[in-house]
Structures are given as C-alpha cells and as structure tokens.
Amino acid sequence: MEYANQLNDYAPAWDAARVDEEVARIRQVAESRNHRKEVYEFCYSAIDLTTLSCSDSVTSVTTFARKAAEFYEKYPHIPNVASICIYPAFVETVGVAVEGTPMRITSVAGGFPASQTFLEVKMLEVSMAVENGADEVDIVLNVGRMLTGEYDEAANEVEVIRQETGEDVVLKVIIESGALKTPELIRKASLLSMLAGADFVKTSTGKTDVAATPEAAVVMCQAIRDYYEKTGRKVGFKPAGGVRTAEDAALYYTVVEEILGKEWLTTDLFRIGASSAANNILSAIEGKTVKYY
Fold first, then answer.
1. CB 37: neighbour CB atoms within 10 A?
2. pLDDT tens column, 206-228
3. What is the pTM of this model?
4. Choosing from 122, 152, 202, 248, which is the catalytic residue?
5. Is 135 marked active-site?
6. Which helix (H) or strand (E) segment is 272 a member of?
7. pLDDT tens digit string along 113-155?
8. What is the per-residue pLDDT for 100?
9. Helix (H) or strand (E) holding 136
10. How many CB atoms lie within 10 A of CB 229?
11. How far apart are the first and last CA of the chain?
C-alpha cells in the first residue's frame, strides 16, 4: 500500500523550539499537579516490566517473572505491572511462571533492536512469539528506510507484520526517536506506523545513545491526537528507555494527559517500558526504599 502520500493529509510537525516550549510548560504542570502517590500507582500499573539482556537465561527470566507474579499477593494494595517484556525465546518461560495470573506477556520481535534482517525472518520471529503465547509484540520501524525517505517501504513492513500477528495481539511499533532526531521525522514515523496498523507507538528500544525524551513524547502524542481526529481510532503511547524515576514517569503521564486527555490514561493506551524504574516508583508509592526487583 502507498503510505507516504497519506502524510500530506496531516500538518507538519512543530519546530524544535516550539516543542521545547511545550515540554517546559508540561514539566511545570507535572511538578505542580502530578508528583503524587495516585499518579505513581497508575504509572506502576502501566509498566511493561522489561529484561532484555545478553545474559538473560531460562533461570534468570523465570526468577524475574515469578517475582512479578508474586507481587499480586505481596502488594495487594498496589495494581501490578501491565506485562513482562522479554526476548521471543523466553515467551514460553514467562507463560509458565505467570500461569494463573492476569499478567500479559510482551515479546520484542521482528529483528529487535536494529530491525536489520530479512522481512521473512521478522515475520517468522513474530509468528513464533505469538504462537508461543505472546499477548503483545514490540517491533522496530526500519530506521534506515526512514532516514533515506523510503516511507512506503518502512510502513509496508509494519503492515505485513500486522497481518502476521493477527488482530488479537497488541502491536507496538518502536520508532527509535533518538535516531530520527527531528520533530518532522518523529512525526512521520509515528503517523506511518499508525497508518500501517500499529496499536501503540513507542519511543525507543533502549539500546541507542538517546532513548525516550519528553520532546519526542510531545511530538508523538500530537501525532496520535491528529490521527485519532481523522480516523476515530485510538492508538496508545509507550515511552521506553531512560525512564528511571517516579518523576520521569509522572512527566510522561502528564504529556499524555495534556495532549491526549484523561481518556488515554488507561493501560490499554499508555505503557512505560522500564526495569530499574519499577523499584523507584514502588519506593515513591511506599514512601521508603523498596528493592523488590
């Protein structure tokens, strides 16, 4: 399908200076209104609890997933994380560890984190992750194609993978905003991903020098808003990489609240990719240092 020409239906991105002004405004709102326990509890419940290390093993991932499953009983007063996010080879491992709980399983796939492999390989990896029990799949938009202006080719990969997952699986598309750099490319990548069938647009893999930033979040959420106004389809937003503190999480919460509105503040439409942030947000909720993970 042709996607690049559909970008003409949307206004250009704000320039960087205007984005910076909006971030400064939203940061003030976050500090004055959303540095509080209720916001932190929601942010914790929106976490895709992540382990994506070269040292991951069946043993380490099982321990990690069981800790998340045991959280329901150990902290019944706090809503648990939304999902556990792992490499495709560990989808079954997590499924066994969290069996009997409502925990969702997210798998990165499709040549994560670089997306630099054959489309057929991406399709097979995604298909195997879903077959093994993944409820949600996070893939990476082809950044190289975006940088060279091959917008149709980048979007068509997403379309093909969307068909591979089926409609029951949540598809999150990572645009790697730190590599795209400019508001205009970040906006185009977000719109192309949504036009091609993404259920979420996600900032980053966490594997590059620049991961999630509030500036990218503003541009992406504006794109989500504008896409919704034209199509009536709600797409979620996920910051990931570099979200470390409760205050960081509250800032992204506030970006969503200010640009998309409170109706987007559900775990169906807002997630946070995090590992170390989980303990830090728990500590902010409990008012003391917590090292659960």
1. 13
2. 999 999 999 999 999 999 999 99
3. 0.97
4. 202
5. no
6. strand 272-274
7. 999 999 999 999 999 999 999 999 999 999 999 999 999 999 9
8. 96
9. strand 136-140
10. 9
11. 44
Cis bond upstream, residue 113 (ω within 30): yes
- Is 238 considered catalytic here? yes
Tens of pLDDT along 60-105?
999 999 999 999 999 999 999 999 999 999 999 999 999 999 999 9
Integer Cα distance of 155 and 109 in angstroms: 16
State the DSSP string of 40-57: HHHHHHTEEEE---TT--
Mean of all residue pLDDT scores within the chain: 97
- Alpha carbon distance 41, 44 (integer Å): 5
Sign of the dihedral through C-alpha 210, 212, 216, 220: positive
Q: Which residues pair with 174 in a beta bridge?
A: 140, 202
Nearest to 29 by CA among 247, 267, 276: 247
Catalytic pick from 48, 138, 199, 248?
138
Listed residue (97, 144, 87, 96) closest to 117, CA to CA: 144
Structural domains of the chain ordered from first start: 4-47+107-286 (3.20.20.70)
Q: Is 173 strand, coil or helix?
A: strand
Instruction: Give the DSSP H/E element, type plus range, for residue 178.
Output: helix 177-180
122, 172, 188, 238: which is the annotated catalytic residue?
238
Strands laid side by side in the 104-108 sheet: 236-238, 200-202, 170-174, 136-140, 104-108, 83-86, 47-50, 272-274
Q: With both helix axes pointing from N to C terminus, report the angle between 151-165 and 119-131 in degrees, rounded to the nearest 10.
A: 30
DSSP 8-state code for residue 210: S
pLDDT of residue 161: 98
Cα–Cα distances in Å, from 209 out to 27, 49, 124, 144, 249? Answer: 23, 21, 29, 16, 20
Tokens of 101: 């709980």
The separation between CA 2 and the C-alpha centre of its own chain, rounded to angstroms, equals 26
Cα–Cα separations (whole angstroms), residue 249 to 112, 187, 282, 284: 24, 22, 12, 11
Lookup: tokens for 140: 């990476």
**Is 172 designated active site?**
no
